[in-house]
Amino acid sequence: MDDIFFTQEEKEFFEAVLARGLLQPQAFFWQVLRFALALSLRMDGMPDERYGRPKGGANRSNLHLEQLTGRGTDKDYDDAVRLLLSIKHQADLFSSQAEYVDLVQRHFRRGVQAMMRAWQPGRDFHDYLLDELYFQAGTTGQPINDLAAVPSEEMLKQGLAAIGVKATPAGAAVSGPRLMRFPLTLNGVEDFDRLRRGLEDLSFTLGLGSATVSMVRESGERRVTIEIPRPSATWHDIRWADVAPILADRPEALAVCPGTDVLGVPFVFDLAEAPHLFVAGATGSGKSVCLNALVLSLLAAKRPPTLVMIDPKGLDFADYEGCASLREGRVVTDMNEGVQLLHAMVDEMENRASILRQYQARNIAEAQAAGAALDRIVIFVDELADFLIGKSGAQEPLVRLAQKARASGIHLVLATQRPEAATFPGLLRSNIPSRIALTVQKAADSRIILDEAGAENLLMRGDMLIKIAGRDTRRVHGVRVDRDDILRAVKQSGLNL
Asked: How many C-beta atoms lie closer than 10 Å to residue 268's C-beta?
């Protein structure tokens, strides 16, 4: 049977969108569901079994593929959908109807669940769709044409000549996971200014499309390094298994590794010294994978911290349910409960302050050394915008934690797809100096995150700029985290069911 099934709650959501979002209560459910399919197709990975056919026959709703994909009608998109899914998941869905129906079922429900978490009655539904399906798609950060040539010294020489820059090689070119690095000695000071102003023209001359060349100032007289992105087909993805071993026996209190630097060397920093972190990037930039890399890093420690996860969409952290290090073994997806939990963390902070005074300790490290039974706590809040724009009351406890929680060993990791002044207000900005910017649409978004431009020129797929308090901004290529990596880490940490 080629029906696609949905829960009663999902059906009620369709009705709410039609009546209060599109203002067309007599319209058809499939109009909402086609948006949901488009949203799911833009997400990474395959929808898992959570999004399969729901149980409970009496409370289910169903639509036929004829309604959803137009199969057998004048506007038949079924073959197009089947082809998209076949390419995305590298499977021949034309030869297996059952596999196709199961997969499209999962995609529809994954998209619906994402919409249910992101859109609330009262928010203009058309603006929501523009943000999710159009503006977030953007044109920034698109990979270089795979047919483009791998950058060479001769290509760079010709490109520099085209913009009037004179330079000589200062060493051999070095190939990183995604970039070629060319060390140069500029002939004169005026060449530095020409190069700085001509980077966009140089990118165009080299045929990089939307990707851009970057320049790094080096120590030494008139020394710079030019970084040129390679065609995406030549990128070397770094897997989680490649970097996990370097986290063993680290001296840092909360060592985390979101990826490697431009030369492929794992980039590790201490979240305890950060001491809080703001992570932002457009849809498809790799924000969710970056968050997972941070979580897996913490779980790899000999003494993992207690994790608190608040995820209004209920998608990115779902696989951590039952993890022994997770507070109460579950992810909080309800906004009101999430705000209550943040207030509880403020109470925990105040209680810990009393314990520190008892041990005459200035911070948790000194208290632990004196015998206090305190573990560090890391609070992950995904979709920060939903909390702050919705006037949920979350800002007050978040600001208090950002201001005072470091000494008591409580750390924040706040994430959003919408880096705006409203979603990262001044009191949070001033108390969260460490930031990770993945690819964003425009320079203004980059400045919201980093206080500087640059993230608009990144290459998607986990390419990021990391600015840790007291350190220079570093470019990092994110590791690839698969679902199996998460499930393995959760299993190794033990289960709290």
From this structure: 15
Stated pTM of the model: 0.73
Which superfamily does 240-493 belong to? P-loop containing nucleotide triphosphate hydrolases (3.40.50.300)
Alpha carbons 404 and 54: distance in angstroms, whole number: 45
Separation between Cα atoms, residue 156 and residue 445, nearest integer Å: 30
Residues 14/29, Cβ–Cβ less than 8 Å: yes
- Here the tokens at position 406 are 């470091």
Domain boundaries, the chain: 3-135, 153-234, 240-493
Encode the chain (497 residues) as per-residue pLDDT tens digits: 578 888 888 888 888 888 888 888 888 888 888 888 888 887 777 888 888 888 766 567 888 888 888 888 888 888 888 888 888 888 888 888 889 888 888 898 888 888 887 776 666 677 667 666 554 444 444 444 444 567 889 889 999 999 999 999 999 999 999 999 999 999 999 999 999 999 989 988 888 877 889 999 998 899 999 999 988 888 888 999 999 999 988 999 999 999 999 999 999 999 999 999 999 998 878 999 999 999 999 999 989 999 999 998 887 898 999 999 999 889 999 989 999 999 999 999 999 999 999 999 999 999 999 999 999 999 999 989 888 876 678 899 999 999 999 999 999 999 998 888 878 888 899 999 999 999 998 999 999 999 999 999 998 889 999 999 989 899 999 999 988 999 999 998 876 54
Number of H helices, E strands in the chain: 18, 16
CA atoms of 245 and 225, how far apart (whole Å): 30
Q: Give CA torsion, residues 323, 306, 345, 115, to 10 deg.
A: -40
Nearest to 144 by CA among 233, 231, 262, 234: 231
Q: Return the CATH number of 153-234, one of 3.20.20.70, 3.40.640.10, 3.30.980.40, 3.30.470.20.
A: 3.30.980.40
Give burial (CB, 10 Å; 0-12/13-18/19+) of 240. Answer: buried
DSSP string for residues in 132-159: IIIITT-STTPPPPTTSPPP-HHHHHHH
